[in-house]
Amino acid sequence: MPQLSTRITSLNEGGSDGWEVFYRARAMVAAGRPVTQLTIGEHDIGTDPTILDAMHAAALAGHTGYAMVPGTTALREAIAARVTARTGIDTARENVVVTAGGQAGLFATHMAVCAPGDTALYIDPYYATYPGTIRGASARAVAIETDAADGFLPDPDRIDRIARETGARSLLLNTPNNPTGAIYPPETLQAIARVAQARDLWVISDEVYDTQVWEGTHLSPRALPGMAERTLVIGSMSKSHAMTGSRVGWIVGPRSAVAALIDLSTATTYGVAGFIQDAAAFALAQGEAPEQAVAEPFRRRRARVLDALARQDLVRAIPSQGAMYLMLDIRATGLSGRDFAESLLDAHGIAVMPGESFGRSAAGHVRVALTVEDSRLVEAVNTLCGFAARRAEAA
Predict the structure, then answer these.
(1) Domain boundary among 264, 286, 308
(2) Which residues form the Aminotransferase class I/classII large domain (predicted)?
């Protein structure tokens, strides 16, 4: 049979996509074994029934044919209004293209700004799809490593050096961050903005967790002086409104870039289902209260898990200011994050993500998603700590 393209066969270097523990946990559940799944950012509540009612009504009303490829006027205007209100940067419908979730936005933005062979930078630790997404756009994925001791915050000087050495074309940022929960402070983002301007970088800013801020303030790089014309922002209904399966997100950027991205949508997804867009527009019209209601359980659970961790001194939480995760340092056990996660799953039926799934910088850590009921979550974390203590004693 003819060969597949290297663009596809090289998506996952080393043959791993980082999701092995998640896949094994799902297989165990399918086989009838109870597993506490703390792996992916999937809400333990469904999409609000009023949003589903709006979706159902739109479908019954006939919005089941081809929708406008850039996105419906109502949804694009709702997104533009939301972005303007949250960032203070005037944003119009022409600055917005609707995508099939944030992941499609990540791929489209890299396709838009990187020619084949261009270098695209991203911060390590990273959401597991980032390097494969960049390679899928035929760009060269180069990680900027960070340090746990610094809360996994990126070093602008390191970004500048690697951008200069590689002739990079783009830089992918994610704040609030998955997997670390870090929110990049204004001084860090300002320094990165200076690098982006000096090195003529496009900044792709993944802001899908902008409603999950527990400490400090989220700042979009697009809101910084001189950055609106070189920043493409990824947004999504998935995390803010528990609409993960609806696959509706967006890109916000300069009008000329958005026009080109609309052309790309025409050649790829050909838009997002109209009844889903209508439901998303309805959801955004409800204001911030529903978003806060979706976020509040994660705020509460984060506090309870941190309280549980404070009762022991072996497993340490990396400082986290946002998002629905905690990154835990388990290096005192002598195990890698992957070995720890595999062993914990086998011994106790608790599934967490190995830090190594998110890059070299997170080795020796595990990520816990705060996505199960409070008491069950705290029980799982206490079990994790007890398991860690026994492994450390045996080391």
Answers:
(1) 286
(2) 35-383
